[in-house]
Amino acid sequence: MNVKLFEPYSINQLLLKNRIVMAPMCMYSCTPEDGTVQPFHMTHYESRAIGQVGLIIVEATAVQPEGRISTKDLGIWSDHQLEGLKFLAERVHCHDAKIGIQLGHAGRKARVNEDIFAPSSIPFNEQMKIPKQMTISDIQRTVSAFKDAAKRAATIGFDVIEIHGAHGYLVNQFLSPLTNKRSDEYGGSLENRYRLLKEIIDGVKEEFDGPIFVRISANEYDADGNKMEDFYQIAEWMKEQGVSLIDCSTGGVIPVGVPSFPGYQVPYAEQIKHKAGIPTGAVGLITSPLHAEEIVQNERADLVFLARELLRDPYWPRRAAKELGYPIESPKQYERGWN
Q1: pLDDT digits (tens, 9 = 90+) for 4-32
Q2: What is d(CA 295, CA 283) in angstroms, rounded to the nearest whole number?
Q3: How high does pLDDT run on average in the chain?
Q4: 290: which of 143, 156, 161, 193 lies 20 to 30 Å off by Cα?
């Protein structure tokens, strides 16, 4: 059987050596108020590149200080944060891997000392701050912050930018009728709720000439939330704007339990891929190499995003190659123990 998981994959002239992606996962390892790369990040990301992951996406990196999920998040809102990110990208590139960065803003889910912002003044839960409803000027500043972050990412040499539009963070808050109660041009209809993401995509495209991914939460687990028909339309709009791939996750916009099991989010990637005709990434408790191969072999998604499994095993691609009978090339330094 042809092993598709290890076939090269080309997206917008970027060639990935395989279809294995390290999903962005917050590490909460920065010095508070600083947002710069620390020694841990170097070890964490470079080891997965040595492990032969094709594309590594750096954790949610805040475009504004008030947009951090926590005070220990990475940031890209200032030039002083670029040196560490640039060195990180260089280290990953040394091992024939590509690197992306997820640009994010936590909105009402930010746990920071500053005022926090959201489309509407509705807290996430009783323990969280009440956010300020964003003015048009606030929205414009945030769009500009994403654009500036994309320019910095391009300068650094990142291969991919992923816009974080999932898990109940700011972009997701604007997209969802559960959290967006505005009556202006950024609220109401689906087209209006999409407006912030549309403007962010346009701004990022102005500064970054490479593949743009968007992560979405394709199930809000509430009868009054967006439906699959809404996500099909959102996906079609993103495709028209030139988005390269949709990374399909679920949940997080409201505090609700999510039933999870291996591959529980794969159907959303499959449906959006075929309905909207846009490449997708599948994520969600994918741990087995056979499962990962089944996903790409049957064209349920184009790329497989691994999260917790790569925390457990930085060399998961090696294990996958052995189980699937694929002769993966080892790093030169590890030849004695690789096969």
Answers
A1: 999 999 999 999 999 999 999 999 999 88
A2: 10
A3: 96
A4: 161
Angle, CA of 6, 12 and 13, to the nearest 5°: 75
Question: Coil, strand or helix: which one is 57?
Answer: strand
Other Cβ atoms less than 10 A from the Cβ of 96: the count is 13
Give residues with Cβ within 8 angstroms of 329, minimum separation 6: none
Distance CA 145, CA 170 (A): 13
Residue with tokens 């024939």: 96
For residue 259 the two structure tokens come to: 């039933």
Collect contacts of 236-240 with beta carbons under 8 A, ≥24 apart: 236/276, 236/278, 237/194, 237/198, 238/197, 238/201, 238/214, 238/278, 239/276, 239/277, 239/278
How would you label 120-157 residue by residue, b for 16+ Cβ within 10 Å and e otherwise? bebebeeeebebeebeeeebeebbebbbbbbbbbeebe
CA atoms within 13 A on the CB side of 168: 19
Name the one residue in this structure whose structure tokens are 């032969």.
52
For 118, the enclosing helix (H) or strand (E) is strand 117-118
Answer yes or no: are the C-beta atoms of 194 and 182 closer than 8 Å.
Answer: no
